[in-house]
Structures are given as structure tokens and as C-alpha cells.
Design goal:
Radius of gyration: 30 Å
Helix content: 25-40%
Subcellular location: Cytoplasm
Keywords: Cytoplasm, Initiation factor, Protein biosynthesis
Pfam families: IF3_C, IF3_N
Shape: rod-shaped
Family: Belongs to the IF-3 family.
CATH architecture of the largest domain: 2-Layer Sandwich
CATH class of the largest domain: Alpha Beta
Largest sheet: 4 strands, mixed
Function: IF-3 binds to the 30S ribosomal subunit and shifts the equilibrium between 70S ribosomes and their 50S and 30S subunits in favor of the free subunits, thus enhancing the availability of 30S subunits on which protein synthesis initiation begins.
Length: 172
Amino acid sequence: MAPPVLSGPRFNQFIQSQKVRVIDENGENLGVMFTREAIEQAAEVGLDLVEISPNADPPVAKFLDIGRYKYEAQKKANEQRKKQKTQEIKEIKMRPNIDDHDYDVKMRKVVEFLEEGDKVKLTMRFRGREMAHGQLGMAVLQRASEQVAEIAKIEAHPRMEGRQMLMVLAPK
């Protein structure tokens, strides 16, 4: 039968090396000793021998309560996960003959998204005869990029993809 799969650091009888550098519960360095001996000393104090740095030579082990150690490591990981922000790509769709007020409303949204730390994909959609006037759409996208130049950088310059022109802006 295979040994149980462990998550987290090795401890007590799962430590594979013969000798370990031991640090007691107060952070005092007890020096290098046999693993068996160290496990017995840890048990006397009512703690486990936990491998802190398995890649060192010899590995470093410390007297800790393994349950509490794993619990605190899990709490720290959850805290990190909570703090990280995922960057989303928000899409704003326009037409080449967009009115000034409509343009201003869309640009307010673009600025809001960029300030929240999200990327913005500006999509210029062309229909029918508008396809022949790509420069009009390019002018609108150019105007948009100049307007947000101080808070954003152009990640993908305007390019045609089928019937639409795309441009991606990322926060600075």
C-alpha cells in the first residue's frame, strides 16, 4: 500500500533525511542532529518536527505544532487571494458616425474602467457603406486614445477584423 499523499511541509516520520539542522520553538539553533533524535526532543516539548527548508544541506527543521502551522499557512494564502485583483477586459462598442454626446458618455465609461485597473477594448463597428470609410472610424479611435493618453497606453493599435476595427487600451 502506498504512503498517504501529504500536502504542505514534511513532518516527524515523513522527513526523509538522516540528519537535520534543528531550530527549537524559541528560534534557538540547536545545531545538526539525527532526525530520530530531533523528533524525540520535539515530542518531549509536545510539538512536531517540521521541515522548513527541505532543499538546504542538511535540511532545516523546526519544533512547531503542525496543525497550527498548516492553519496559519492556509489563512495567509486566503488573505493573499483576497488581495489580488483580476484584470478584466471591458468592451466599448461604437460606430464611425457617433454623435458628440454619445461619444462623451462612452469615453466617461472608458476612463472609469481604466481607473479601476481594467483593460478596455474599443470596438468600432462598420455596416454597409461605412466599410468604404475606414478612416472615419480610425479618426474616432485616434481621438479616443489621445483623450486618455495620460491614464492609459495603447496595448493593441487599431486594426481591422472583418467588419470591425479593434483597439485595446491598458491602464498605465
